[in-house]
TrEMBL record:
Entries under SMART domains matching the protein: PBPb
Record's protein name: Putative aliphatic sulfonates-binding protein
One GO CC term on file: membrane
Similarity annotation: Belongs to the bacterial solute-binding protein SsuA/TauA family.
UniProt domain Solute-binding protein family 3/N-terminal: residue ranges: 43-255
PANTHER family the record matches: ABC TRANSPORTER SUBSTRATE-BINDING PROTEIN, ALIPHATIC SULFONATES-BINDING PROTEIN-RELATED
Annotated InterPro entries: ABC_SsuA_sub-bd (IPR010067), Solute-binding_3/MltF_N (IPR001638), SsuA/THI5 (IPR015168)
Length: 335
């Protein structure tokens, strides 16, 4: 009897070990299989400015169950982002119409396939708290730091034109964001044309003053720019990604504090800066590019040409692909 018990116990033990071995092999095979499948999925390479879109998709739950892989590249401003798309180093990203215009003037092989209608604060001109500058006319013969070809450059050009002041009566200094921030703090420049979250950070951290913003001065669209290669080979992924962005923005409208927390964590700005940025950001992600969107962009290109910022007139219509349409519920569909 004792022998039977011993044999039964030994067999049971061997069975358990064998079962564990089989399960381990299955698990390892499953992990390997998933890894292979993940590598086999198509890749969509996204450019993002300061991680804002990635944070938005993350907090809205739109990074879950994606049938392709996302590879993110983060940029401080839009110019290098759109250059990477033009060079086929990235597939897609959002940049201001001013930035897209500057790239198109350089014959960048890109197309806008989706737009955001931007109704928020936009770019702004800021000055130090104790500056004697209080209005645009005070900037005559002064130095304004900006990123050449950016939405902030557009704001300065449009504001001076609206005020009837020749742009030649001020000094535009092309600087990176980091250098412009330091130049304003040191007094090397008198004003800084920039956008959020840099405006919000300057207001909250450095007590900078806003003397004017894009609102009421210039209409803008944000261009969803893709490479010709991505348009030809990754249409389904691009449509799905845009649909996710559209749903995420709709969700964020009623979850601003939640978005601000993730935005702060992911980008490194404070929660207060993130909240101020998001509260005044009014964006509508379109289902499809419409005539009115191209008209807004064309005015930007015309202004840039009129002021000599770009060397030749541009017909921006040629830089749009209107075949990308996203369904009303955020589900992508082909036109």
């Amino acid at each position: 009897m004792a022998f039977w018990k011993l044999s039964h116990s030994s067999c049971a033990s061997r069975f358990r070990r064998a079962l564990l071995l089989v399960l381990s092999v299955i698990c390892i095979g499953s992990v390997f299989s998933h890894a292979v499948l993940a590598e086999d999925r198509p890749v969509l390479r996204i450019g993002d400015q300061r991680g804002a879109i990635k944070a938005l998709l993350k907090v809205a739950g739109e990074l879950d169950q994606i049938p392709y892989r996302l590879e993110w590249s983060i940029f401080p401003v839009g110019a290098p982002l759109v250059e990477a798309i033009a060079a086929n180093a990235l597939d897609f990203g959002y940049v201001g119409d001013a930035t897209a215009t500057f790239a198109l003037a350089g014959h960048a092989p890109i197309k806008t396939i989706n737009v955001w209608r931007f109704h928020g604060f936009g770019a702004a001109l800021i000055v130090p708290e104790k500056s004697s500058i209080h209005k645009l006319a005070d900037l005559k013969a002064k130095k304004i730091a900006l990123v050449r070809g950016s939405p902030a450059h557009l704001l300065v050009a449009a504001a001076f034109k609206q005020a009837g002041i020749p742009l030649s009566e001020t000094h535009l200094i092309n600087l990176t964001v980091a250098d412009a921030k330091a130049a304003l703090a040191s007094g090397s420049v008198d004003a800084w044309a920039i956008w959020d979250p840099f405006i919000a950070a300057a207001e909250l951290n450095d007590h900078a003053r806003v003397i004017l913003s894009s609102q009421g001065i210039i209409d803008e669209v944000l261009c969803g720019v893709a490479s010709d290669r991505a348009i030809a080979t990754k249409r389904a992924q691009l449509l799905d990604f845009i649909a996710r962005v559209q749903r995420a923005h709709a969700w964020a409208d009623s979850h601003i504090p939640d978005y601000a927390r993730v935005y702060a964590d992911d980008t490194g700005v404070s929660y207060e800066v993130a909240l101020k940025t998001i509260e005044r950001m009014k964006v509508v992600v379109t289902q499809a590019v419409e005539d009115q969107d191209i008209a807004v962009h064309q005015k930007v290109a015309d202004l840039y040409f009129e002021l000599g910022i770009i060397p030749a007139h541009l017909d921006v219509t040629q830089a749009y692909d209107r075949s990308f349409v996203v369904g009303e519920a955020g589900a992508s569909r082909s036109p």
